[in-house]
Amino acid sequence: MRLNNLGIIRTNIERPDPKDVARLSQFGVATIHEAMGRVGLLRPYIRPAYTGAKLCGPAVTVLLQPGDNWMFHAAAEQVQEGDVLVAGCTTESEDGFFGELLATSLTARGCKGLVIDGGVRDVADLEKMDFPVFSRAINAKGTVKATLGSVNVPVVVANALVNPGDVVVADVDGVVVVPRELAGAVADASQKREDNEESKRQKFREGVLGLDLYGMREPLAAAGLTYVEE
To answer: Which Pfam families match (predicted)?
Structure first.
């Protein structure tokens, strides 16, 4: 009987429709987060390792042990074209789990980037390769290969639950997780929100104030807001 989910590699995960992933890739993290009802965000300490990094793809999840990147090498075999690696750790660790060599290996497999609640290094090389990475820290400290974790099990990454096959979207505003089974519906909701915002954007260009566009004057007055001419 297993007492935990360590030492497991699931080789056959269900991925979302690639068309839905492509649609989600057209929207920013903030739009998707709002469209889902303000859920799904990773904690804001997960930041792009270099300016301009962005990614979108189904998650191949990795559960790491602190200071040990063994499972990244195991995970590389499970990556398919368009996937994103999403890595959590059994406890907090900011060691440099990931660098240019692993990125080179993953690029050959079609991987579109990494989100990790841990540290990465070789950032200048990652930027040259245009391999998007979002991480907890940048840290030159290396890791060992000695302790089993798992691949394609549910992981908690920066307070967000990520299941294998969920769509992960990341840009300069943060990282959001879209449940695999909701990818199409969230893409629809994001498009609707984007269309609505474009309508508002045009009104703002025309000089309409938010006070009037959003009907704020009456509730502000009811709350006791007073204009004083002196």
So the answer is: RraA-like
